[in-house]
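pasting input
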Amino acid sequence: MAKILIVYHSQAGIVKEMAYAIKQGIENTDDFEIIIKTAEQADQEDLRTASGIAIGTPDYFDYMAGTIKDFFDRTFYAVQSKIRGSLTANIPCVFFVSGGTGGGPALESLKKIGSYFKFNVIDYVSSGPRFTEDVLKKCELLGKRLAEEIKKE
Ligand SMILES: Cc1cc2nc3c(=O)[nH]c(=O)nc-3n(C[C@H](O)[C@H](O)[C@H](O)COP(=O)(O)O)c2cc1C
């Protein structure tokens, strides 16, 4: 069964709620093994074996959370391949962010690092500092779109 990795960091709970809404959206769409972990728990094996990935962070000082950056730092060598360039090349990916002002800078930082991993970034959801019905729906839809993209491959 194809595996989807959801990695997130959250202190006040918004990004965590978003992660679980994305998980729900995937589950509503198709059968996948879903691994949902905080950035501290996730490791290179989780990333290397995933057919798709969702990565979420709050905006901290106009950047991603340190634990998410650390996750990227810890896993980069493991996904580099002398033959293919990057084992994560073209893996479908979605981002989800939250911030006092919507998380735009954190999203940009994710996009930048995502380009080094060569993820196929499909879409993203941004949220303010509250988890609303609208955000819930957007996250479920994001999960559905990620699942559908993986099914296409
Ligand atoms: C250390 C720290 C730095 C933050 N820096 C920013 C920031 O630069 N811009 C912003 O819009 N929000 C900032 N915030 C607010 C959080 O991004 C926001 O509250 C977010 O919704 C928290 O997500 P969470 O509920 O998943 O922890 C900061 C919060 C913390 C704790």
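fyi The first strand starts at residue 3 and ends at 8.
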